[in-house]
Design a protein that fits this description.
nine-stranded mixed beta sheet, about 375 residues, elongated, single chain, four-stranded parallel beta sheet, alpha/beta, 17 strands
C-alpha cells in the first residue's frame, strides 16, 4: 500500500436485508449467500482493484474532498436474515462481533433489512457502552444489484462516515441523511427516504457536500474502554391504546412473565382515566415490579402530564418516556432489565438519558434530581 495516503479500516457486518437480495424463480426477493461481496469486487465504483490491499480487504475509490482511503472487510452472517426475523440474540451477536474486532478497525457498518433497522440501531446504542468509534447501520429499499438502486449510495455514504469521521455513536445512514440510531424511526415502507428522526435534528446530510453537525454529536467516552456486557431480557411487551380495547388484551400484556411494557398512549401521554379497570390493571402490574414506560403514539412530540388523563399514569408509577421512540423505549427496557441492578436502580436508569435517546429538558433534569 502507498505510504503517502491515510488508510482507515472498516468492518462491514452483512446480516441480510433487501440491499443484498436477488429475485428467485418466482420473482420474490430472497438473500443469496456469498453473492454480495463478489458483486462489490466487480464494481469499480465500490472497489478500486488498482490499489494493493491486505488479503480479504476491498478499497473504496478515493472520495473527492477526502484524504483518507477506506479499506473494508466483510463478515457475512449464515444464514442471512430478513430483518423481520431479527431478535435480541441477533442484536447481541452484532454487538459481540463489534466488541471482538473493535481494536482492529476504525469504524463499523452493519448492513440490515429496513423493517426492524430502527430496533437494531437502538439496541446497539445501549449495548455498546463507552463507544468511541462510528457504528453505522444501513440498508436499502432496492437491492444493490439493480441498475436503479438506493443501496449503492447508502453503502458508500456509510463507509465514508465510518472511515473518515470521528462520530462515537451508533448512527443510521439512509437517503443522504445521518441520524442518531436510537432516534430513528421508519416512516415510509415504499419511499427511498424511508427513515427520519422526528424528535431530533439530523447529525448530518450528504448532498453536494457532506455536512456533519459536529455540535450535535455526542462526546466520546474519555478513554474508557468499550464494554459489551449483559443481556437483552426480551420479556418486554408493547401495548398500544385504542378506543374500547379488550381488557383481556391489556391483562395479557401485563401478565407474567412480562417485566417491562412500552405503553403507547394517546397524544401527550393520555389514557382513558375514567376506565377504572385499566388503571387497576396498570397499578397491579407496577406493584408486581413491571416497569411501564409511557410513550406517545404520535410520530413527533413528547409525553407530559398536562391533562388529568395523563397525570393518572404518573400517579400509578408509570414512567414518562419523554420523547423516546417506541423502538428506543423497547430496546432500552430490554437492556435495563438485563442488568443485575436492583429494581429501584433499573427504574432510575430508565429515567436517565443514556445514549442521547431523550431530549434533555429542565423538567427531566428536575425529575432526575
Amino acid at each position: 500500500m502507498s505510504k503517502c495516503l491515510n488508510f482507515k479500516r472498516v468492518l462491514v457486518i452483512y446480516t441480510g436485508g433487501t440491499i443484498g437480495m436477488t429475485p428467485n424463480d418466482n420473482g420474490v426477493l430472497v438473500p443469496e449467500p456469498k453473492a454480495f461481496e463478489r458483486f462489490i469486487r466487480k464494481d469499480v465504483s465500490l472497489h478500486d482493484p488498482s490499489l494493493q490491499v491486505p488479503d480479504g480487504f476491498l478499497a473504496l475509490p478515493l472520495v473527492k474532498g477526502q484524504s483518507v482511503r477506506v479499506l473494508y472487510q466483510f463478515i457475512e452472517y449464515d444464514p442471512l436474515l430478513d430483518s423481520s426475523n431479527m431478535a435480541g440474540k441477533d442484536w447481541k451477536r452484532i454487538a459481540q462481533d463489534i466488541g471482538r474486532t473493535y481494536d482492529l478497525f476504525d469504524g463499523f457498518v452493519v448492513l440490515h433489512g429496513t423493517d426492524t433497522l430502527a430496533y437494531t440501531a437502538s439496541a446497539l446504542s445501549f449495548f455498546l457502552e463507552n463507544l468511541d468509534k462510528p457504528v453505522v447501520v444501513t440498508g436499502s429499499q432496492i437491492p444493490i444489484y439493480e441498475t436503479r438502486t438506493d443501496g449503492r449510495n447508502n453503502f458508500v455514504s456509510s463507509l465514508i462516515i465510518s472511515g473518515c469521521y470521528k462520530i462515537p455513536e451508533v448512527c443510521v445512514v439512509f437517503a443522504n441523511k445521518l441520524l442518531r440510531g436510537n432516534r430513528t424511526v421508519k416512516v415510509n415502507c415504499n419511499s427511498l427516504d424511508a427513515f427520519d428522526s422526528p424528535n431530533a435534528p439530523l447529525l448530518g446530510t450528504f448532498e453536494g457536500d457532506i455536512i456533519i453537525n459536529n455540535f450535535l454529536v455526542r462526546p466520546g467516552p474519555g478513554g474508557r474502554p468499550l464494554a459489551v456486557t449483559g443481556e437483552f431480557k426480551m420479556n418486554v411487551a408493547s401495548l398500544k391504546m385504542t378506543p374500547d380495547m379488550s381488557l383481556d388484551l391489556i391483562r395479557s400484556a401485563l401478565a407474567e412473565p412480562i417485566m417491562g411494557v412500552v405503553l403507547e398512549s394517546y397524544g401527550s401521554g393520555n389514557i382513558p382515566s375514567n376506565w377504572t379497570e385499566i388503571t387497576s390493571l396498570l397499578r397491579s402490574a407496577v406493584n408486581r415490579g413491571v416497569i411501564i414506560v409511557n410513550c406517545t403514539q404520535c410520530l413527533s412530540g413528547s409525553v407530559a402530564a398536562i391533562y388529568d388523563a395523563g397525570a393518572v399514569l404518573s400517579d400509578l408509577g408509570v414512567l414518562s418516556g419523554s420523547d423516546m421512540t417506541s423502538e428506543a423505549a423497547y430496546t432500552k427496557l430490554a437492556y435495563v432489565l438485563g442488568t443485575d441492578l436492583p429494581h429501584h436502580d433499573k427504574i432510575e436508569l430508565m429515567k436517565m438519558n443514556l445514549r442521547g435517546e431523550i431530549t434533555i429538558t429542565n423538567a427531566i433534569i428536575a425529575n432526575q434530581n
